[in-house]
Amino acid sequence: MLLLQFSTSHYCRKARLGLGYKQINYKSENLTPGLHILRVKPLTGLKTLPVLLPQVVGQPDAIADSTAILKFLETYQTEPPLFLPDHEQQTEASMLEDWLDESIGTATRFVYYQFRAGEGKQIDPSLLSQTVISVVRQQYGINQASVELAKNRLVTAFSELSIRWQRNDYLVGNRLSVADISAAALLSPLALIPQYRQGYPWLFERIVQIHQLCNEPLPPGL
What we know:
Helix content is 58%, strand content 6%. The protein contains nine helices and four strands. The chain has helices spanning 10-21, 36-44, 66-76, 87-117, 127-140, 144-167, 178-186, 194-199, 201-213, and strands at 2-5, 27-30, 51-53, 63-64. The protein has a four-stranded mixed sheet with strand order 2-1-3-4, covered by helices on one side. Helix 1 (10-21) links the parallel strand 1 (2-5) and strand 2 (27-30). Helix 4 runs antiparallel to helix 6 and helix 7 packs across helix 9 (201-213).
């Protein structure tokens, strides 16, 4: 299998966590933002990453979107399972995954790129890195006002996740699910931001544990 990705994308990290948890051998190909469209649009009709190329007879040629990739992996290799056996619990896990994907992952992106353009610029001050950051900020309309809204969404997320993870090792049910993988991946960029790293140690402890369960190297800052 081949995973087309941006090396720093938290959505691509989500796909890698799923592959790692399933212990599926794969290779990754890092694409350049902007130029990646030439590679992925002919395959999926979309401009987004990650894209998984199963390269297996009888399987789809390409699967776009991290959620779709996890669903494919569950049907391709059922053990160890990512989907919960209880229908109500799996529905809840899928709803959490969707919320994390559509709201919290976006909020993380806004806060992270605002940080990287300002006090976190020294992480990689190279022209290429700063150009990519500038393009992303323009593409998504990242500014002080939108970042403040994103920070508020993150506070809500931390409250919900802390309640769930304090009463159980997992967000839903008694084993790892797509909800845990989504949270661990989509909040991982915040590890580089001191106010989050220091203010929410329980979150990053859980992110580390999930990465270890999934045999995935820890994200920067951890």
